[in-house]
Amino acid sequence: MRIAVDAMGGDNGSKPIIEAIKQFKKDYPDVEPVAFGKKEELEELSSICRIVDAPDVVPMEAGALEVIRMKNSSMCKAISTMKEEGFDAVVSAGSTGGFLSAATLILKTIPGVKRSALVTAFPTKIKGKKVVVLDVGANNENSAEELVQFAHMGKAYHQALFKLDNPKTYLLSNGAEAHKGSPLVKETYALLNNHFPGFMGNMEARDVLNGEADILVADGFSGNVLLKGMEGIAKMMSSMIKANFKKNLWTKLGYLHVRKGFKNMSETMDYKSTGGAMLLGINGVVIKAHGNSDAYSFKNALRVAKEMVDDQVINKIRESLSHE
Amino acid sequence: MRIAVDAMGGDNGSKPIIEAIKQFKKDYPDVEPVAFGKKEELEELSSICRIVDAPDVVPMEAGALEVIRMKNSSMCKAISTMKEEGFDAVVSAGSTGGFLSAATLILKTIPGVKRSALVTAFPTKIKGKKVVVLDVGANNENSAEELVQFAHMGKAYHQALFKLDNPKTYLLSNGAEAHKGSPLVKETYALLNNHFPGFMGNMEARDVLNGEADILVADGFSGNVLLKGMEGIAKMMSSMIKANFKKNLWTKLGYLHVRKGFKNMSETMDYKSTGGAMLLGINGVVIKAHGNSDAYSFKNALRVAKEMVDDQVINKIRESLSHE
Predict the structure, then answer these.
(1) Do B261 and A244 touch (CB under 8 A)?
(2) Are residues A180 and A82 in the same domain?
(3) A residues 191-210 near B, CB within 8 Å?
(4) Does residue A227 share a domain with residue A140?
(5) Is the same domain home to A35 and A162?
(6) CB under 8 Å to B5, separation ≥6 — which residues?
(7) What is the pTM of this model?
């Protein structure tokens, strides 16, 4: 298994990515990461993996066309080499828009896929259980047929990741009742109901984390609002918690008693443990790591890439869409 | 000033509402609440305010037509009496869908208003500052022209509540850049940009609570996802915090040191202090209190109703839309 790694993208430069590759290689000696980036910066990886010199760095706000024009960029070269040499996966922490659209343009979508979707897993209040949400932002708008495909792709992804036989699939709506929702939701509901095994109905945004749903289907705009809205309030509450404990000697003393609980809590809420988001519907495993990934987070992104290849998620998507 | 109060709606029956009316009357002896509900249950209010017997209770999932057919329900009678006798406001903690659509059908929208919008204020990380968000769920879908009207109505509401001269208005989108967004967002952006004073551009869901925006405009579906998504994760984190402190004697001891900070935090996050949401665009002040309102929360809803009447928010909306 070979994984193309954009070693330059991301807010923190190549350092955490080099570290992540080292750790990943220790855990999975059989997998071959290939690092793309400034050769001299990646020197220390030379005994561990193949290095491809790609000295340019794609700016954070770059679009697809810019990326494709930057043939010597680590991001572009990672994707195009993956295609040319038939690698299994590509991972980048660089510009989301640029990476996703360049990957789509170069690798192409799986035959029959109308639109690709960005998928990620949210923590829930049930310990260890996650809910797979898609699309969280690859699209600005979607049709009902596209949402039905998202349900199929989400199921293949969920089964690859969690090996659950009959995941429960819900549709994000503004009310739980069958008749509630935007015209798009109503149309999608009608298509999924009685036709999609495991479809359980509509779900309000407030119930997404209650552990009931395994998969939540949303259009890219609403899914993005959900993801980022939750991220925003979680961040605000976390900094309020920290400030509470830092106030004075007594509150610091108080922290000593509860730190284990709060550490568990921030681990649960930590997006870094999910290792980024996958772009589903593309010919190949495409993983977008978080822009500010540290070594731990990026290693998780590499691990997810490996699992997706192991579980042949691309083939599963191909199959489930051909039966549709 | 007279305010029609549905004293039976809400998950907790008439008890907290009776208590709220008593407290409200103490704070504002000049305002006249009129209580609608089962006469025998409201007996103790007889020395404080007028009571109108309306023995039926609208079920939580009732729609507009059901409410209107239930002529002897506290909700329906409150709205229709408001119309007949020219009251200034109506407040209910009953079925959202039923209340909003019955109020719209009976009281009618302000001339020129295309769609009414549900507005509420979110806490931000800047102490004491709130951000006004609309529509949070009155509509299943909206046009760009409707969103422009929401911006006008939101401004009138914000000025009535916070007396700020030039509130900063943003549009909820999946990216902060001008070209980002759904087709609806792009169209609305073009209409607001350079035409709407104080329009600052697009805002991602993760930045809504950072204190930068005074007003956030969204279509009813996305606004609802934002509101309920935040509510869901805030609830989950709060219960994790509580569980952390309740673990054993040591963690309880820890809590003693930080309880003041955490109390402040839960007050900041407490939706009860906002007193519910207002339906903007209707002829008259229509306030939807939370279904599970306690006396404190319902009193805040009554206070918001009073402030909206004091500040003539309906006239302000009428004016701002006539200049449009």
Answers:
(1) yes
(2) no
(3) 204-210
(4) yes
(5) no
(6) B17, B21, B33, B34, B35, B36, B78, B90, B91, B92, B302
(7) 0.89
